[in-house]
C-alpha cells in the first residue's frame, strides 16, 4: 500500500485489489467507460459480473507476473491498473497493462503514480523484463505521459479501434526492465 499527496491536496492510496473490491470495481468500470472513448470497450460492453471479477482478482493475486491495483481517495475508487503477464514460459517475462482514472481526477498525476508503482513492482518481481501498452494514436495526453516515463514507440497498428463508425489506429509502446 502506498500513499501520495495529489496536486489538489487530497491523499491517494494505491493498493492491490482484493476480492471484496469486485462489486466496487464493476461499478467503477461501468462509470469510467461512459467517460472516455479511449478504452477497448464502451458502455455496456465490459460484460463481467462481480463474481467473475472476484475470480479474476483471486487469480491475479496468486500469480507472480500479474498485477491489479486500485487507487482510492478516502473510500472512493478513482482509478485502476491491470497488468497481465504471459502464461507460457517463453513470454512470462512480458505483459501489457491497461489503466483507467475517473475523468474528474484527470490531471492529478494518478496515472503517473500507477505506472511508477507498476515499474517498481516489475523490478521487484525480477520476473517481468518488459512492460507493453497500446494507446489510441490520438490520445496525445496519454502518449505524452508514457514518453515522460521512458516508454518508447514500437509501432502503429492501423484500424485497431472501431468506435461510432470510425476507425482509429493504436500506438504500441514499451519499456524494458533491467
Topology, pairings included?
Blueprint: E1 2-5, E2 11-16, H1 22-32, H2 50-61, E3 66-73, E4 76-85, E5 94-101, H3 110-125, E6 130-136, H4 140-148, E7 152-163, E8 166-176
Parallel strand pairs: 5-6
Antiparallel strand pairs: 1-2, 2-3, 3-4, 4-5, 6-8, 7-8
Domain N-acetyltransferase: 12-178
InterPro entries: Acyl_CoA_acyltransferase, GNAT_dom
Pfam family, one: Acetyltransf_1
CATH class: Alpha Beta
Strand neighbour order, sheet with most strands: 1-2-3-4-5-6-8-7
Strand content: 35-45%
Instruction: Write the element-wise H/E pattern from the N-terminal end onward.
Output: EEHHEEEHEHEE
Q: How helical, in percent, are the residues?
A: 25-40%
Number of helices: 4
CATH topology: Aminopeptidase
The assigned CATH architecture is 3-Layer(aba) Sandwich
Total domain modules: 1
CATH superfamily: Gcn5-related N-acetyltransferase (GNAT)
Mean pLDDT: 95
Major β-sheet annotation: 8 strands, mixed
Amino acid at each position: 500500500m502506498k500513499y501520495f499527496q495529489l496536486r489538489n491536496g487530497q491523499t491517494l492510496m494505491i493498493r492491490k485489489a482484493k476480492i471484496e473490491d469486485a462489486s466496487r470495481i464493476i461499478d467503477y468500470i461501468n462509470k469510467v467507460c461512459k467517460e472516455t472513448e479511449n478504452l477497448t470497450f464502451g458502455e455496456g460492453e465490459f460484460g463481467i459480473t462481480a463474481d467473475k471479477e472476484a475470480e479474476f482478482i483471486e487469480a491475479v493475486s496468486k500469480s507472480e507476473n500479474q498485477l491489479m491495483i486500485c487507487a482510492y481517495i478516502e473510500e472512493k475508487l478513482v482509478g485502476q491498473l491491470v497488468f497481465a503477464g504471459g502464461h507460457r514460459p517463453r513470454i512470462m517475462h512480458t505483459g501489457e497493462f491497461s489503466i483507467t482514472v475517473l475523468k474528474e481526477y484527470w490531471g492529478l498525476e494518478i496515472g503517473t503514480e500507477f505506472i511508477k508503482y507498476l515499474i517498481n513492482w516489475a523490478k521487484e518481481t525480477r520476473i517481468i523484463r518488459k512492460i507493453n501498452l497500446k494507446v489510441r494514436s490520438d490520445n496525445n495526453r496519454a502518449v505524452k505521459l508514457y514518453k515522460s516515463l521512458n516508454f518508447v514507440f514500437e509501432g502503429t497498428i492501423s484500424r485497431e479501434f472501431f468506435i461510432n463508425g470510425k476507425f482509429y489506429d493504436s500506438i504500441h509502446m514499451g519499456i524494458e526492465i533491467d
